[in-house]
């Protein structure tokens, strides 16, 4: 029997980063229906930073969490509906309780790569409510394989039924992925997954490396629609896994149709590896920063590439978007000083 | 009354409790008569023992046994534990300064309401959260010159190393308590609090950004009001700095503060620990002064 790969599709969650969280209700409905027809097993929806994250800090969402979940649920008769939940943004009482009531199937409880213990109560709540629960470690390039394994074991102990690492900055090369996934597969008794970003053009290659190292859950977005340079392109993943003899259970033609629909329906500009995205990947800074880095850079006359490298030097992580302005103003002041010294 | 110092007990020997102990020992008006935890081998307990402080590993029972030697109890455990501790401490007639986000008592930010809290002789004083101590006074300063705040949001990033187990288990209470305090002290229609734990090494300094949606912002008035508030905060939190003054960014007001700690128990990056503890010591000293009058 060929190896099974479980595909989880964050087009309608990570893609929200690419349009400043403005995906419309119609697009949620249309893409959910198309992904469901294609047999995509899990469809993740929401604000780019997940449940309860709509904010001035990371961007206000066009729709409420409730509208998103209701719309998706109505249009996902077969596929499981998933949400991304980061403690610190999302509370059990206000957000998870509502998601459970609105029929979520998979709750992906996420933390930064070394902070697994903040997920304990959320994982516990989700399990007690009979939901499928994944632990997700974000910005995983900031931790060594051994540290990741320690954090992943905590999530497993709390009740996570699978463990996904995210390359939030698109910083990995395939060998980095192989090492980390291999270590996690050995350390854990639950399935291991990988979520790619394409900043260095490695989205598909890294996903393949993950599977070859033992990952059985792979995230991919239609047309790669996701933060920054985008995610691993889902329809390409489906095709590549087919060529490699892996089974995803997804209908290729219908998946290609869903991706075409996504392009027409909601992708205002196709994800591509912009010059700034490359620097974001190299500096190991979260891809989701790119819109704010570009606009603040333009407004204050500071090179966005300099902003990214400085953010990387300061180890900025997602949720620290407020640092962008501070860094830009700092660079501007340095530039002004240098200019004054020359004059 | 004699010139005797006000006697405080610290319940909880984690990061918050141990840093409080060092600050209390430095105080001219407070003395720590008991430091209570559950484990003599914890770092905090060892530190207290080395400092020659009277210690107990009996938890709340330790306080009950030595109640006659205590005026004020700082509860530096967790919100869930405080719900159990409060009825016992209340029955003992102690003034309790609650460091957890349990929010049973009166919300206190010394820069805003120290006088009222002292005058009301509140028995349970809640110190909100570290992010609340950093952001609520700024929100209050904005509200002093703008009565049309629709929405206020605060995002704090703290270093992972400065967040102990109780902080980590209390993220939801942190959010709910901070939001409640923001609404109470700014009159905003809606509030949102976000907490980010940053794993970077070397650890990042605590930073808090305050955003506000205001229909007709008067930037000059906001800046002047925030400057006045800064002076009141710095009086008890010396490491509090305004690093991005109120600015209009994308149609909203935003301003960022940074809190450098005093480096008492954890290094200076742990401004989150410092600000809530400075605030708690500040209010305890105000109560001590009142006791002498």
CATH class of the largest domain in chain A: Alpha Beta
Main interface: chain pair and counts = A-B, 32 and 32 residues
C-alpha termini separation of chain A: 73 Å
- Average pLDDT taken over every residue of chain A: 95
The amount of beta strand of chain B, in percent, is 25-35%
Strand order of the largest sheet of chain B: 3-2-1-4-5-7-6
Rounded Rg of chain A: 19 Å
What's the average pLDDT of chain B? 94
Task: Using the coordinates above, name the CATH class of the largest domain in chain B.
Answer: Alpha Beta
CATH topology of the largest domain in chain B: Rossmann fold
List keywords for this structure.
heterodimer, A: TIM Barrel, Helicase, Ruva Protein, domain 3, 8 strands, 48% helix, B: 293 residues, alpha/beta, Dihydrodipicolinate Reductase, domain 2, seven-stranded parallel beta sheet, five-stranded mixed beta sheet, 12 strands, globular
Characterize the structure shown.
The complex is a heterodimer of chains A (343) and B (293). By secondary structure, chain A is of the alpha/beta class. The longest helix of chain A is centred in the C-terminal third of the chain and has 21 residues, at 322-342. Chain A contains 14 helices and eight strands. Chain A folds into two domains: 6-265, TIM Barrel (Alpha-Beta Barrel); 275-342, Helicase, Ruva Protein, domain 3 (Orthogonal Bundle), CATH 1.10.8.60. Chain A has helices spanning 11-18, 25-38, 65-74, 92-101, 120-128, 145-158, 174-187, 203-212, 234-244, 252-265, 275-283, 290-300, 304-313, 322-342; strands spanning 6-10, 42-45, 80-85, 106-112, 132-138, 162-166, 192-195, 217-219. The mean pLDDT of chain A is 95. By secondary structure, chain B is an alpha/beta fold. Chain B has two domains: 6-128 and 274-292, Rossmann fold (3-Layer(aba) Sandwich); 130-269, 2-Layer Sandwich (Dihydrodipicolinate Reductase, domain 2). Helix content of chain B is 42%, strand content 26%. In chain B, the strands form two sheets. Chain B has a seven-stranded parallel β-sheet with strand order 3-2-1-4-5-7-6, with helices on both faces. In chain B, helix 6 (130-145) runs parallel beside helix 8 (171-186). The longest helix of chain B has 22 residues, at 271-292. The chains are: A alpha/beta (343), B alpha/beta (293). Chain A binds chain B through residues 55-57, 87-89, 91-93, 111-115, 117-118, 120-121, 139, 142-143, 314-315, 317-320, 322-323, 325-326, 329, and chain B through 153, 155, 157, 160, 165, 168-169, 171-172, 175-176, 192, 194-201, 204, 207, 209, 211, 213, 243-244, 247, 249, 252, 254, 256.
């Amino acid at each position: 029997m060929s190896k099974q790969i479980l595909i989880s599709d964050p087009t309608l969650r990570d893609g929200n980063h690419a349009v400043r969280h403005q995906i419309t209700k119609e697009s949620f409905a249309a893409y959910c229906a198309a992904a469901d027809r294609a047999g995509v097993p899990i469809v993740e929806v929401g604000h780019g930073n997940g449940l309860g994250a709509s904010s001035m800090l990371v961007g206000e969402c066009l729709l409420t969490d409730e509208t998103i979940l209701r719309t998706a649920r109505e249009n996902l008769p077969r596929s499981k509906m998933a949400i991304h939940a980061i403690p610190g943004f999302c509370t059990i009482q206000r957000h998870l309780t509502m998601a459970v009531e609105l029929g979520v199937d998979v709750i992906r409880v996420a933390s930064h790569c070394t902070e697994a213990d903040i997920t304990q109560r959320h994982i516990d709540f989700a399990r007690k409510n009979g939901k499928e629960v994944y632990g997700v470690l974000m910005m995983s390039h900031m931790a060594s394989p051994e540290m990741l394994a320690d954090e992943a074991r905590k999530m497993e102990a709390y009740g996570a039924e699978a463990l996904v690492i995210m390359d939030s900055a698109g910083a990995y090369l395939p060998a980095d992925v192989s090492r980390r996934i291999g270590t996690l597969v050995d350390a854990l008794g639950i399935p291991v997954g990988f979520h790619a970003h394409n900043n260095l053009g490695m989205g598909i290659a890294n996903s393949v490396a993950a599977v070859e190292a033992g990952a059985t859950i792979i995230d991919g977005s239609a047309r790669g629609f996701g933060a920054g340079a985008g995610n691993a392109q889902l329809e390409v993943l489906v095709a590549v896994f087919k060529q490699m003899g892996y089974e995803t259970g997804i209908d290729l033609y219908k998946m290609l149709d869903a991706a075409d629909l996504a392009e027409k329906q909601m992708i205002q500009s196709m994800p591509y590896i912009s010059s700034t995205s490359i620097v974001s990947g190299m500096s190991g800074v979260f891809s989701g920063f790119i819109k704010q880095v570009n606009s603040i850079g333009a407004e204050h006359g500071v090179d966005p590439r300099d902003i990214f490298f400085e953010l990387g030097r300061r180890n900025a992580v997602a949720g620290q978007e407020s640092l962008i302005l501070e860094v830009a103003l700092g660079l501007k002041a340095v530039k002004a000083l240098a200019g004054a010294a020359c004059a | 009354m004699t010139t005797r110092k006000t006697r405080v007990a610290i319940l909880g020997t984690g990061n918050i409790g141990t840093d409080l102990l060092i600050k209390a020992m430095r105080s001219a008006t407070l003395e720590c008569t008991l430091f209570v935890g559950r484990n003599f081998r914890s770092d905090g307990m060892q530190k207290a023992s080395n400092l020659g402080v009277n210690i107990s590993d009996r938890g709340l029972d330790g306080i009950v046994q030595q109640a006659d030697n205590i005026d004020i109890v700082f509860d530096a455990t967790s919100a869930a534990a405080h719900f159990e501790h409060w009825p016992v401490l209340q029955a003992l007639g102690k003034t309790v300064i609650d460091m957890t986000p349990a929010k049973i008592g009166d919300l206190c930010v010394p820069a805003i309401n120290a006088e009222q809290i002292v005058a009301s002789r509140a028995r349970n004083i809640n110190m909100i959260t570290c992010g609340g101590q950093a952001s609520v006074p700024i929100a209050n300063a904005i509200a002093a010159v703008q009565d049309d705040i629709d929405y206020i949001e605060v995002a704090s990033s703290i270093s992972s190393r400065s967040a102990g187990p109780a902080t980590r288990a209390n993220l939801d209470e942190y959010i709910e308590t901070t939001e409640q305090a923001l609404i109470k002290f700014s009159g905003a229609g809606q509030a949102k609090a976000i907490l980010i734990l940053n794993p970077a090494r070397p650890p990042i300094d605590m930073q808090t950004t305050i955003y506000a949606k205001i229909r007709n912002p008067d930037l000059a008035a906001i800046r002047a009001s925030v400057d006045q508030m800064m002076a009141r905060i710095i009086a008890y939190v010396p490491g509090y700095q305004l690093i991005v003054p109120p600015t209009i960014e994308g149609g909203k007001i935003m301003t960022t503060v940074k809190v450098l700690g005093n480096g008492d128990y954890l290094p200076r990056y742990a401004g989150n620990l410092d600000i809530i503890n400075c605030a708690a010591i500040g209010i305890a000293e105000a109560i001590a002064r009142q006791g002498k009058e």
